[in-house]
Amino acid sequence: MTLLAIENLSKRFSSGGREVAAVNDVSLTLEPGETLGLVGASGSGKSTLARILMQLLPADAGCIRFEGEDWLTLSGADLRRRRARMQMVFQDVLGAFNPRATVASVLDDPLRIHDIVPKAERTREIAALLDRVGLPANYAERSIREVSGGQRQRIAIARAIATKPSLIVLDEAVSALDVSIRSKILELLVELQEERVISYLFVSHDLAVLRAVSHRIAVMETGRLVETGPMRQVIENPQSSAARALIGAVPRLVTEPTEGPSHDV
Ligand SMILES: Nc1ncnc2c1ncn2[C@@H]1O[C@H](COP(=O)(O)OP(=O)(O)OP(=O)(O)O)[C@@H](O)[C@H]1O
């Protein structure tokens, strides 16, 4: 069964007397265990789409089916229960968390709110989550401000997987990291996907990042989806001028062998 189906989604903003069609009649699907790379120039509407999906922003029109349910009409207890299945990792983890919070409390929140494990087992579960993302258990006592950018992103991933989601939306989640740290985080994400059958909607302006993890790529330009296809096809034989421009912005993208994720969906 298709995990996520976005149908004819639209969102307009008006600012300073100007109307912007931030997301304009966008439809796309995501299968279980699949990574869809959502790429586009700055302002093309990627974050707006991700924010509507996470219900951080209401849509003007369109519908989203997630795990067979009409996602945008869920509310109250139904939404709270279902929310555990869709998580998000942001670029700016410090902005998303209280910087004075300890790593333990950042990981405890989703376990408590979604009642994932009984209270007596939470410390052990937090240690297991830290271990799974490659951090020692004693990091639990540190404040989120005291860890490096790469470690913070690992903690954000641990928090996202804590609720056993079927979908994680990653919004420029590795963009701020050094190249070597970035590739380790991408490896971790691919491992977790294979282990737990998680789908990723991976939002980035950087096709080099998306090439490493995506099964398919969707290209946005000024609010519209202008091209969707298998990762290799879009990179080696782009059909839209927007895709060609993004490929042209990454030197060696086409000449280097195209790797992509190790598993098929
Ligand atoms: N809250 C808002 N109020 C007014 N306009 C907005 C708002 N949020 C986004 N926009 C506009 O909507 C359009 C899409 O923005 P969005 O942030 O979704 O693009 P993006 O592709 O994620 O860009 P970036 O990669 O720079 O984050 C832009 O023209 C932006 O200026």
Note down, in words, how this protein is organized:
Helix content is 36%, strand content 25%. It has a domain of 66 residues. Helix 4 crosses helix 5 and helix 6 packs parallel to helix 7. A six-stranded mixed beta sheet has the order 6-7-8-3-9-10, sandwiched between helices. A four-stranded antiparallel beta sheet has the order 2-1-4-5, covered by helices on one side. Strand 1 and strand 2 form a beta hairpin. It has 265 residues and is an alpha/beta fold. The chain is built from ten helices and ten strands. One of its GO terms (biological process) is transmembrane transport. Belongs to the ABC transporter superfamily. InterPro entries: AAA+_ATPase, ABC_transp_ATP-bind, ABC_transporter-like_ATP-bd, ABC_transporter-like_CS, P-loop_NTPase. One of its GO terms (molecular function) is ATP binding. This is Glutathione import ATP-binding protein GsiA.
Key traits:
6-stranded mixed sheet; 36% helix; alpha/beta; 4-stranded antiparallel sheet; binds adenosine-5'-triphosphate; globular; 265 residues
